[in-house]
Design a protein that fits this description.
It contains four helices and no strands. It starts with 5 loop residues before the first helix and ends with a helix. The protein is mainly α. The model has no long low-confidence stretch (mean pLDDT 81). The protein is globular, with a radius of gyration of 14 Å. It has helices spanning 6-21, 25-37, 49-65, 70-84.
Length: 85
Amino acid sequence: MDYVDASILNQKLELIHWLSAVEDAAIIQKMMDLKNEQSDDWLDDTLTEEQKKGIIDAMDDIRKNGGINHSDVMRKLRNSIANAS
């Protein structure tokens, strides 16, 4: 298993949780604009195929289902950490 910086992971989870609760259309539009400005640099060779697939799957899930339940994310994170030991 690849090493993941826990502080970065926690920041990502915090952002996911925050974004899932945002209802202000202007903020959501700004986030979409930021996303659309981004290039596909995150798809470069620094990520494994599994990581790329996980990111793409998560983004598709957010688009289809409107977000991720925070408690499900935390449960999966805890399981992942427990299994990594």
